[in-house]
Amino acid sequence: MSNLEFLxxxxxxxxxxxxxxxxxxxxxxxxxxxxxxxxxPRITGYVLIGLTLGASGLDVLNTSMLGYTRVFLDIGxxxxxxxxxxxxxxxxxxxxxxxxxxxxxxxxxxxxxxFGALVWFDVEPLYAAVAAAIGVSSSPAITxxxxxxxxxxxxxxxxxxxxxxxxxxxxxxxVTMLLSAIHREYQASWFAxxxxxxxxxxxxxxxxxxxxxxxxxxxxxxxxxxELHAALLLAVVVLLVGAAEALKxxxxxxxxxxxxxxxxxxxxxxLMHVDVGRFSQIFFIVLFVATGAILQIGDIVAGGAIAVVYxxxxxxxxxxxxxxxxxxxxIRAGSxxxxxxxxxxxxxxxxAMTHSxxxxxxxxxxxxxxxxxxxALILELIGxxxxxxxxxxxxxxxxxx
Length: 401
Hints:
By secondary structure, the protein is an all-alpha fold. Helices cover 76% and strands 0% of the residues.
């Protein structure tokens, strides 16, 4: 042993915890700076910091380094999806069936508009269908975090969060159904064409349901102690994210199902209300900084006019679906348009579904990414501004945290 072996060796090896701390610090400072100076959502600051540090900027955060943060990103996404699922109230949907009709209409019309527009611009039908299915989803993370940042409450806020949860599930169901067509396109076996979608959907739903049963059973046994219930929820979310990764399930469906059932099956109110935002905010910051680092400005150039067409068709479909049923669902006059604007964001869920659908066959992924990623980049940047505008204009934003 030499006299200097106790010193660290340079260059230093990448350390996931140190990288997590750097992303958290840079994101928190950037988000607060953007809010104070420009009066923009903190999320915009998080994404801009990521763009600055990522491949489109200083290239400090490359793909290999971001790989070390994957576990933190999955936990952050899992917490967003769980929190969103908890806001879906089956009793409300049964009472206000026009809200359910609105959700189905905006999903169906947005899919139809995007598919028709892409086919019109000579995109092959299979690629157009998968891209349209992905575009049905709005961004749960952006919508939820901007609403929380503004402390927004009211008709537009609650309807937006419920519609985002429903259209995220609808998007995943559509993409899953199209997996059979993707397998057929690349001449896979009938075994893969039939069983892959069934396994992905069925097992993901079962995992979320099992997690909800486990949570409610343990919550009843633990008693009414909020700190224990907070630890229980965080533990089960992390466990479910890990199980979904290991079993190749959908984190989206598993966590949304978990959140929805934990609320709607808890008829005896054994689970105390826990504000997961208190401990999830740190994961959210890192999630958006890392997402910004992954984005590449070059994707906009590659997508070109087709990305603009895709965004426009998506907005038209969602707006028509919402406006057709807005007055029937009891929403205030003039708020239907604001609700349509609040559904504009598209973010991490779109990236996840693009990767999931495209990971089966590299050739398919390359063509699909050109369509979706350019649109996702644009909506990642303007989406938070759209939600902030809609909630403020609706008069539902309170003082900012």
